[in-house]
Amino acid sequence: MRPRGQWRHRSRGHAAATLALGAGLLIAGTAGAFAQGGEGPGSSAPAMAPMESMAPMASMDAMPSMAAGLVVLDAWTRESPMMELAGAAYMVLENTTTVDDTLVRATSPAATVVELHRTAEGEDGTMAMMPVEEVPIPAGDRAVLEPGGYHIMLIGLVAPLVEGEAIEITLDFAQAAPQTISVPVRALGPMGSMGSPAPMGGAMDGDG
Amino acid sequence: MNVPMLVHRSLATVSVLALASLLAAAVPLHASGEAGEASPVASPAVAGSVTTPGTVPGSALVPASAVAPAPALVDLVNPDGSTFDLASLTGAPTLLFFGYTHCPDVCPVTIGEILGVFEAEPEAQAVFVSVDPERDTPEFMASWSQYLPERFHAVTGSAGAIRRAADEYGVRYARVDTGSTSGYTMSHTADVFLVDGHGQLVGTFPFGTSADTMAADIAALGGGTG
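Predict the joint structure of the above. Result:
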């Protein structure tokens, strides 16, 4: 996982999944949860497991000391070498309460403007991205911000987003208290799958 | 929403497999049968023939109804302003898709998966056709594409040339004024077209197809360098 040039392709797969889970733990910690070393969610919930919308209780069991409320998991953003292009941040927002909540606003020192957006596939098969007012997080459920769906748009980057670094994003909710999370920057590359190929090693993009 | 949930790797894989099973049942090999001059099992070295597309286990490839030469991308330009020539890529398989550089969500997913294909398939190439000529000038494409491998070809052109190219591929796109501070966005279909080493349009991968899945289909083309 050594830092390398921007947008440089490299092997991801399991490493990325592990990183994502680690980030989730880190952020859960920020949110007031207590992540226990090797006995955390990593052991009970494999990194590759799909996030089932009906499994919030299992997650609570895995993190018993987590205060009831809004838990942010698996936050990440993608490297963006060109500041004139917007970045996008993704995460899972888990509502462990019995009250519906919404993500109403996000801000970040990394961008001059932060907006909530959603990409959706239209009836004509085109993918279109539109700003949204809020992201619903139903009680006992989770909102998944992911590529091709809801995401946080980072507009007017104050610096390139560099793989291996992290940015801060503050999330404001209708019900839960605001949270400031650390969002790691991932390389542009495949989202990961079984049997990720070995890195090529050879550089064909001479810049970095 | 039917968008593949890429974050959920296992789930996505299962969906792709399920889709492939359906396709395998619904599209029985007719594509190769219509290739004409060559037998469906002919060597890949025979011009115009392909390994039966979409039959790789787990394939997400939607085979073309009839394998035919990929439409030339006429009057499009490279970042250096020179005329792009799709035929110059003959000899190795190519993944071709339409998008725009200011696309923060959908296009980077496709680009990322293609970079994964590049790792698995050293000969594979890609063509990114901008549908946003207003912002994606050759100059901007030059700044942008420097962060990508040389075999990732970013091309743009006049609004008219782009529209004609998109129409040839059945790609739909439109400018959408969303009120976002980031400016307008482009809605667009996000399929990835697979062109074999002979310049034949073999089929399409739906948005969200994983690098491994695309690489497996490319490998099944049998090299394509002949």
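Residues 14-30 of chain A form the longest helix (17 residues).
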